[in-house]
Amino acid sequence: MTVFDGVSTALVTPFRDGAIDEPALRELVEIQISAGVDGLVPCGSTGESATMSYAEHRRVVEIVVDATGGRVPVLAGTGSNNTREAIELTRHAKDAGADGALLISPYYNKPTQEGIVAHYSEIARQTAFPLVVYNIPGRTASNLLPATIARLAEVDHIVGVKEASGDLGQVSQVVARCPEAFSVLSGDDILTLPILAVGGRGVISTTANIAPAEMVELVNSFCSGDTTRAAEVHKRLLPLFDVLFCETNPIPIKAALAELGRIDAENRLPLTEITVPNRERLKVVLKELGLL
């Protein structure tokens, strides 16, 4: 088991008038911890890291580490398609007091599988920090193959993978090929239960921003052997899983949090506001689930 098993929330980054809304971010941290999540993940895809400056990126990590105060682990997003930049961001996260780093597989430049292994291995070597690799082909245009993840699992300091390939067969192969101590975490909320069933150990969740207690119940029920209850929670949350990805993440989840009055529904271009039909659909689902 690693420190990052269970439910970790992929935190949104609240903005107000174009700047980081620090009070809102700190309040989100409190809500998550009070709901019983096992960890927090700032500066991932859900956190709009792609449109933050390096200074903002570092500041968000610092705020979340400080607000968390050691109560749950912080797995800071530090990925880049530039290995040197990823190393710099990872070193900062380590110095800031995070417990580990989540690194997206290099995007746009489309390295070979050998290049991907070299990228992660070099970051691990230079930072000596717990790393979780992140496989999300829909955003990176490359897929971390099971054999590649198995190689990475043997590298010192690489402790897990966030799997968002959407391919349960592939995830099954990853679990089968990797050591018992290596954590396979779901990167698709809707596949959390199936991934747990094939040996996954948790989820890094977007949905937990709005329904943390429910995600915790899903995972904890399964892990305690109550698979019937886990399936019931999964079925109840299906409409939410669906609507929260009706547009590019994090557009819908920020709209949902704004409906609850927790943040401003402010994204950074090229992301735009949720469309009116999808906002209305989102509100219906939130009301049906008793969240609004």
Explain this structure to me?
With 292 residues, the chain is an alpha/beta fold. Helices cover 47% and strands 13% of the residues. It is built from 12 helices and 10 strands. The protein has helices spanning 22-34, 54-68, 83-96, 113-127, 137-140, 146-153, 168-177, 192-197, 212-223, 227-243, 251-259, 276-288, and strands at 6-10, 15-16, 19-20, 39-41, 75-77, 100-104, 131-135, 158-163, 183-186, 202-205. An 8-stranded parallel β-sheet has the order 4-1-10-9-8-7-6-5. Helix 4 links the parallel strand 6 (100-104) and strand 7. The longest helix has 17 residues, at 227-243. The model has no long low-confidence stretch (mean pLDDT 96).
Order the strands across the largest sheet as they lie in space: 4-1-10-9-8-7-6-5
Number of helices: 12
The profile of the biggest β sheet is: 8 strands, parallel
- Radius of gyration, in angstroms, nearest whole number: 18 Å
What is the general shape?
globular
Concise synopsis of the structure shown:
By secondary structure, this protein is α/β, with parallel strands linked by helices.
List the defining traits of the structure above.
292 residues; alpha/beta; eight-stranded parallel sheet; two-stranded antiparallel ribbon; 10 strands; 47% helix; globular
